[in-house]
Amino acid sequence: MSQIKPSILRIILFFYTTHSWCQVSFFGDIYVGQNKEFHIAFKETYFNQGKIKTYRQEPPGVVSFGSESQWTQLDEKSYIDGIVRVYHEGIFTFPIGDFDTFSPITFYMTGNKNYVQVQYNQTLNRTYFYNSIQFQIPHSHFWSWKVSGNPYAKIQTFWWPEHKLFNLINFNEDINALNLGLLFLESWGKYVSSLISNSFTPKNPLSLKYGSSIGTEPIALNKYTALTYLINKKETREEKLVSQVITPNNDTINDTWKIQGYSFTFSSEIKVYDLQQDLVFSNVGAYHNDWDGTALQSGKPLPDGSYFYTLELDGIPPTEKSGWIYIKRQ
Q: What H or E segment, with its residue span, contains residue 32?
């Protein structure tokens, strides 16, 4: 890994000591090592050539920007290959990338009292498996962040031909198959967003080659930890079905309550009540067909009998589906 060139370092120091308002330009690679921070306080920063690369493992190296710092990319291969941090709120576009793919991301931040740091990975060394009828399991393009405190942000991504979104959606030309997804614990869920043109390339209309996606609402950055592109699965004719009987006797037949054909979100809510209208089971978010008739409060098997359920896909009344389920153990 090449280090910062001495001649460039002298230019940075010269401008810093003579003009507090001036700009800085980078023409070669810079490496920010483990547990180091390279802070950019200049109002104008130009990425002319080369990359600023940071150590990505814990404790990472980071590049931080001042509250008034702005940047301009003059070479598409010049950006920060690593972790970028800011200490202020407001609008900031993180100039990040990975594997020669520039993948900036904009955070419209509020409530950032400490820091927000972001990195981009073209691929991950692990896969998050989850039960989704609507979306494919994501395999590429991941933005992740760490925060201190409770900041909120609306998030916007950008893409170019280098992102190969045609491949991502199996050469389907329908751009509406592309969604933003947020990681909560171990599961991906849809982040409601709008597709717009790429402001970096305003002459190119929205397409799978050039475009942008922006969330419609701010999210809690300490609740969600990453963002990716979720791709709609091809439409299937899977029948909507809620099983009416659970027989949890370990014979592998109807041992758990099955729900199929419904698209769950982070806000989806399932509730089950006994005949006294006491809540005996609830589930928020994706349901994994794993409830075996165990009581919510006591953790003990519920007695045989009839129970009433409600299903709200968006977590907001009115209820989309309701009905009865019967538990029979013997």
A: strand 30-32
Secondary structure string (H, E, C) spanning 60-115:
CCEEEECCCCEEEECCCCCCEECEEEECCCEEEEECEEECCEECCEEEEEECCCCE
**228-247: pLDDT as tens digits:** 998 877 655 567 889 999 99
* β-bridge pairing 115-121 and 142-148: antiparallel
Whose CA is closest to 208, among 197, 194, 192?
A: 197
First vs last C-alpha separation in the chain: 67
Using one digit for the tens of pLDDT, what is the confidence trace for 81-105?
A: 999 999 999 999 999 999 889 999 9
Overall pTM surpassing 0.70 (yes/no): no
Domain boundaries, the chain: 6-231, 241-327
The whole-angstrom separation of Cα 298 and Cα 208 is 51
The CATH class of 241-327 is mainly beta
Q: How far apart are CA 283 and CA 323, in angstroms?
A: 16
